[in-house]
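Page 47, continued from p. 46.
Same chain as before, 229 aa.
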Amino acid sequence: MFDRCEALAEKWDQYIKPLAEAWWAERGPAPHRTLFGGCAGRAFTELAATCMASIFSFTCSCCGQVHEGSPSFAFRAPDPFLEQPSEVQAAGELTSDLCWYDDEDGRHFFIRVCLEIPIVGIHQPFLWGVWVSVSEKSFARYVETYEAPDLGDRYFGWFCNYLPYYPNTYGLKTMARPRAGNQRPSIVPEESDHPLSVDFHQGITIERAQAIAEAAMHRVQGGLDEKRH
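Result:
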């Protein structure tokens, strides 16, 4: 019984507490008021049911392990950079957020961004940490406003990673949007019939999210080197 209580407490802190604060802010009394009695008791039951339903969890069909929390995967570099000879990479620069290199076509600029795909019925999205290629002007503006981003800025970018599960995602058109709070920019893929664009604009089912996560977790894929689940 104690172990179960500990597990529930951990889930509360990790998943439910943020939702609880938003729920109470919209619907009723402050979170410190009594929850177990009368209307408040019914409200807490409704809140708990809503929060628990929004936690992503699945048993992997490949390894049999239970994974909790919406999937999140990141690429450590843009694929074009990784495809360059070592001397080209060494002459360029790769940080956790920025990248550039020179070749016979000139200098190429990249920024790291977040692609958030909604999962139907789940609070947190399926998150991809990816890279897009931007113009020199956009790159300079992004660097200039890095510490204090202008939320009105928009950066056109070409998608520069090959995502597992999907057909070729390289070169898809996107628009990057800066975000406050020390967050990386989010991107919006251009609407098209490409499955990645469809998933972004329409959302995905839990079953599809599981299939994509399994493909990412159990397939070696270039620079895909960070993951949490």
